[in-house]
């Protein structure tokens, strides 16, 4: 089964043996390791074990017949590819968008296997990949993202917050400049470009993002972190999976679509319409375009989507001595979108170049079909098609490929008498003329039928175009209607939310009014004493509450947040001449001492009834708390007197001792 003309490195062939990638339980696989022409089979292996084998063997290819046997979705497939070592490529041997069966490919390449045995299927995948059969699976753009950012949060801050922020942002700036210096050097050596986007912050950078237009393995920057800054390097995932056919030893002829300009779009197709490359590059030179196209084969046709041919495209065509392909009329945007939809594209430049390549392929599609019908199947079809594109007939192209000239038909000499020969010759010429006349008459009739059929088809096309235009108008109206409905539904949703909020606020207001009425009744009946709310123990809050609620002498105050109080704020409260201060939290020692010296009761944890900025306290509870405070204050005063008396006695004794000595 080995073919020595192709790959000789280690190749893993994988086929699912039990279960499914979409099942809850991890599936098991059959793995065939192709190394130096010999195959080693591993049966019923789980995916983690396969990844370990890949890291140990570092194969050139991992070959499968369906990539979604390895992962249930594109997202999981991306995770799988990110775990592979650098240089290991995933190959789907059955092709890309236009897949062929594994059994058919094996027969085409002289292989045979039991399609019901996963081990033999895995070996067939490895063998086909070694022959250059299949398409490499690419989920990553040739773009690398590098992000330099803070390694930790700055937190809520404190006295040293600015100094800490400056230190972290300075570290981010330092690492960003290191990365940029490496990229500048590498871009000069390897010829790729990069862009940067920096967000400045206090004392440095908050973050820096670099977009490098090169593959991850070409960028000499790795992920890592320090105490203050971190670097994250990642691939850019494609919108759609790209399949690139494996290149064999010989260069295959290709069809190339070019969209010229500042940003050049390049699309390369095989004669089988497989997409080999779809890319757009900004500021690329003519020589770089030619080099890039040459890496994927020998261009037979260079296509463009405009008429006449742009000068830059003509220069590329002359570089390869290829045939030019231009549309007879301008290709509409709708047609370009329809042509490129099965393949996918990232921007308008890729779309236009892909449309140009597909339009060129469509022009030669019928000719390719005639070649495949007339040429023997064992010959190189691509080479015959190339000769036909270059102007040869199919017979001449076959002759060039085989190297065997087609013998000319020589007239057969017939031995005859002079009289018999003349009569026979005249009869044959007459019969030939009649036959030619009949053929000409038949062809003329056929031509008339074709003209009638063409006229009928033109009418049908005209009717269909009219119908299509009406459908577009109806569709446009429906879209506008749907859009208007969507806008109105959004407005209704917003109004409903506002209504719910209003109802909630109204309900809360009713509840507050009810509580206020109860408080007012308690005040009138003498069952409650008004309490004025002081939100915080600050100078501004005291003045604002005084102006807003009118704090006067004899009022009771509830101090909601007692933290941060000082002798100044405590003195301000004392000067107001209030009767008592109620609090639910501890005040500072300095403030408590001011209240004590001023004989202002400071009551803790007295239950009050509160509605927003209004509150009442039960007179009995208040009096009980005041009595308790008075007892405690009297005890403290007595202790102070005792301390003072003791201090006087100690001083007197000290003076007596000094006098005696």
TrEMBL record:
Coiled-coil stretches noted in the UniProt entry, renumbered to this chain: 433-474, 626-658
Annotated signal sequence range: none
Keywords: Coiled coil
Domain of life the protein comes from: Archaea
A Pfam family: DUF460
Designated name of the protein: DUF460 domain-containing protein
Species whose genome carries this gene: Methanococcoides vulcani
């Amino acid at each position: 089964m080995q073919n020595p003309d192709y790959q000789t490195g280690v190749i893993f062939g994988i086929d699912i043996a039990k279960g499914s990638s979409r099942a809850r339980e991890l599936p098991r696989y059959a793995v065939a390791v192709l190394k130096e022409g010999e195959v080693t089979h591993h049966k019923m292996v789980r995916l983690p074990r396969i990844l370990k084998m890949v890291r140990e063997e570092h194969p050139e290819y991992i070959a499968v017949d369906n990539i979604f046997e390895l992962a249930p979705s594109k997202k999981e497939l991306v995770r799988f590819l990110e775990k592979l070592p650098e240089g290991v490529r995933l190959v789907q041997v059955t092709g890309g968008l236009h897949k062929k069966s594994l059994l058919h490919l094996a027969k085409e390449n002289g292989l045979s296997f039991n399609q019901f045995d996963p081990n033999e299927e895995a070996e067939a995948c490895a063998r086909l990949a070694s022959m250059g059969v299949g398409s490499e699976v690419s989920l990553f753009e040739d773009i690398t993202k590098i992000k330099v950012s803070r390694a930790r949060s700055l937190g809520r801050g404190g006295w040293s917050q600015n100094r800490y922020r400056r230190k972290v942002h300075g570290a981010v700036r330092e690492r960003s400049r290191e990365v940029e210096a490496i990229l500048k050097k590498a871009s000069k050596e390897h010829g790729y470009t990069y862009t940067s986007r920096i967000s400045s912050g206090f004392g440095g950078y908050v973050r820096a993002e670099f977009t490098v237009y090169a593959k991850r393995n070409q960028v000499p920057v790795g992920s890592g972190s320090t105490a203050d800054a971190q670097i994250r390097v990642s691939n850019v995932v494609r919108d759609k999976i790209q399949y690139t056919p494996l290149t064999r030893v010989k260069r295959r002829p290709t069809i190339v679509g070019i969209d010229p300009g500042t940003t050049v779009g390049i699309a390369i197709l095989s004669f089988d319409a497989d997409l080999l490359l779809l890319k757009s590059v900004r500021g690329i030179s003519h020589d770089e375009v030619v080099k890039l196209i040459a890496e994927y084969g020998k261009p037979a046709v260079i296509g463009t989507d405009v008429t006449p041919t742009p000068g830059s495209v003509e220069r590329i065509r002359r570089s390869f001595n290829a045939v030019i392909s231009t549309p007879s009329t301008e290709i509409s945007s709708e047609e370009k979108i329809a042509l490129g939809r099965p393949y996918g594209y990232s921007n308008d430049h890729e779309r236009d170049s892909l449309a140009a390549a597909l339009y060129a392929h469509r022009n030669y599609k019928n000719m390719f079909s005639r070649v495949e019908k007339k040429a023997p199947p064992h010959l190189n079809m691509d080479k015959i098609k190339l000769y036909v594109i270059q102007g040869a007939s199919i017979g001449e192209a076959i002759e060039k490929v085989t190297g065997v000239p087609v013998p000319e038909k020589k007239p057969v000499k017939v031995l005859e008498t002079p009289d018999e020969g003349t009569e026979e010759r005249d009869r044959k010429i007459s019969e030939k003329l009649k036959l030619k006349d009949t053929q000409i008459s038949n062809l003329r009739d056929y031509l008339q039928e074709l003209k009638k059929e063409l006229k009928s088809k033109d009418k049908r096309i005209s009717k269909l175009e009219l119908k299509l235009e009406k459908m577009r108008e109806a569709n446009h109206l429906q879209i506008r209607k749907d859009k208007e409905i969507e806008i109105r539904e959004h407005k209704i949703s917003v109004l409903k939310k506002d209504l719910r909020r209003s109802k909630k606020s109204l309900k809360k207001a009713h509840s507050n009014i009810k509580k206020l009425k109860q408080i007012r009744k308690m005040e009138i009946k003498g069952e409650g004493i008004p309490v004025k709310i002081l939100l915080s123990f600050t100078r501004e809050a005291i003045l604002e509450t005084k102006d807003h609620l009118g704090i006067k002498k004899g009022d009771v105050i509830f101090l909601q947040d007692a933290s941060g109080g000082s002798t100044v704020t405590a003195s301000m409260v004392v000067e107001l001449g209030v009767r008592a201060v109620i609090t639910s939290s501890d005040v500072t020692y300095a403030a408590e001492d001011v209240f004590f010296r001023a004989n202002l009761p400071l009551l803790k944890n007295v239950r009050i009834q509160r509605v927003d900025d209004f509150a009442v306290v039960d007179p009995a509870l208040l009096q009980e708390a005041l009595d308790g405070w008075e007892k405690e204050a009297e005890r403290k005063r007595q202790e102070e007197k005792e301390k003072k008396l003791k201090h006087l006695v100690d001083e007197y004794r000290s003076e007596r001792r000094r006098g005696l000595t």
